[in-house]
Amino acid sequence: MPTIIMTKWPVKIDGSVKAKAMSFLQKLSADDATPGLHVEPIAGAADSRVRTGRVDQFWRAVMFRLDGAGECHYVIHGVWPHDDAITVAARVRLKVNPINGLPQIEEAEPAAPPAADPPAPTRPAESHPTPAEPLMVQLGRTRADLVDRLGVPTDVADRALAAPNEDAILDLAQRHEGWLGLLLVDLATQDSIDTIVERLHLEAPEQTGNDDADLLRSLQQPAAQAQFAFIDGQEELRRVIENGDFGSWRVFLHPEQRHYAVRRYRGPFRLSGGAGTGKTVVLLHRARALARERPDARIVLTTFTTNLADALRDGLGQLDPTVQQATAFTAPGVYVTSVDALAAAVIRAAGDSIADAIQAVLGDARYAPTGRTPTGRWRDVIEASATPLPPEIVNETFLSAEYAQIVLPNKVKNENEYRRVRRPGRGVALDRAKRDSVWALIAAYRAHCRIDGTLDFAEAAAVAAAHLTGSGGEADHVLVDEGQDLSPTHWQMLRALVAEGDDDLFIAEDSHQRIYGSRTVLGRYSIKIVGRSQRLSLNYRTTAQNLRYAMAMLDGGDYVDLEEQAEVTGYRSARSGPAPAVEAVESLVAELDTIADRIRSWCDGGATPETIAVLVADKFQRERVVNALNERGVPARAVDRDRPGEGRVLVMTMHRAKGMEFAKVVLADGGPQSAAEKVRLKGLDAIERHEAELRARSLVYVAATRARDELLVVQRS
Ligand SMILES: Nc1ncnc2c1ncn2[C@@H]1O[C@H](COP(=O)(O)OP(=O)(O)OP(=O)(O)O)[C@@H](O)[C@H]1O
Question: Which residues are in coiled coils (predicted)?
Fold first, then answer.
């Protein structure tokens, strides 16, 4: 039975042709001699391996037949109308690139470059670069670097060397799928040639021959798999064809992504990377790889919110419906859940034995916590107290952070213990009298919760952690997304959930997207991560233009990661598009009109409403925008906890949009900060205020990076 090797097709085909192509490929993979397929060579073709096949009366597939180790393989180049297919088939050639050992499909008679192309410079700049010099020259790249070291085909190298700026190189990159496109994106950055070689795992081929065995070896190189995929069964074939471009993450991984998805680690590992670099994609592939390798393993895949957990669950199902999704964290398979739901599940599963854990964390005897502490409980405690403490301590932000970051992780149960506990990373110094007064408020908070039998989220995670500690690990592998937002007791729980060992904890995070929690240092919670991390830097989602806008939001903010190191920026994008539009408006009505007008013009241009999102600061603004759009004849709906539907423009808070993406995004900045918010921020101590400001910038960064193609920012003065 022939093996099918799919490529990212250079020509996109529509739905009805896809179905026919699917049926053709299914038959081909069963038996290439099936009558009606007409698998035939082309007389005088540039490559004797080329074959055409009959998809239907009108369409033909173009492919290469390779025979290696007694097996037949078909590399599917694409599907074209009959006459075009014959022309393509006569010209194309599949070969091993002699420099980097990667497979390369080239046209035997390349079209002459457009006359307007300026001649390519061949030497790096000798003097200081001027803006008129092409980007490659400014970066000191030479033709020898591109052609002789990296294996870029000469015609593409000449175009790249002549490209005036980054956008022009990205345009060129977009015209080349796979490793060549990835190389061009990297060449537009400051990265050294050595770094690029390492990142794409480029190696000179052992053999430079072009026989079938060499080609098959070349097709298996890590960088080749960004463009070519060996198809494992009919079901996978169907998914690859049906999902087209949007589903390419399921099949065509960047060599770095593949590396992190399959590599085995002795202990915890942290993968950082900016928005849209594919951290979630790596986690999903890793979960599948672990589940396939060990079907009996208990794998927990977790993230911060319920909505994000839903998205992970859906993503895993799309990646591979055969992966067993477990319904309990102790069962074999992949259990996908939010961290807070995980804490609740641990407590539920513990039954009455949870009383010991509650005793260890809170110091009181309770068997069954009956519910979640209502938000606003700290406010009630503050209002009922006559504390002598200053306002920068007596506020909900300070007290809840002190409780979640110091009291709970240290299992502080009384005033004496609180007097002695160390408080690293907390701003306000507390002398003994102040500590006693803070403890009085904490004791009041606990008393309220004891009376109504509730636990807050941080308490529930602490109790779950205490219960799991010493259990020897009830899961085998824990994979975490959005790690930057987790709190100390979440980390304690996850640490206790899995015993220290191979592939125990794999954490994806981006400090720039911390919009809920405060800085956390994993080493404090027995997660020994120092020196065990890497980062992804190629953004697959956001165009370079939108990414630059989003990155500017972070300028000047001193972000630190989970190892307490300064967070690095320097992401690059694989895509190019229009510059973001920033429109200043003077009134609320003008803001709403501007949003409605732009959405109408996007829809007139062919965009479907559900691929457009308006992101706002809070629920109040969300309702206002939904009403205003509907009144102006633009069907819109608010998205809250439910999954977004079809046929209407989606309006949601920036927090809700975390982890999502849309073709087009309007960012409604909501106007100047409200007076109440100004007062709230002023009342915080310096560190809390600083963190709140970082979170506010991060929120805009998160929101701006949700746009795949176009971004409109409406700013009200
Ligand atoms: N190898 C790939 N090929 C094609 N598309 C990809 C690839 N990797 C990621 N993508 C796409 O890039 C987008 C972002 O991926 P993903 O959500 O995994 O990134 P992320 O780093 O988790 O982002 P965020 O931090 O913003 O949530 C998705 O649309 C995903 O399908």
Answer: none
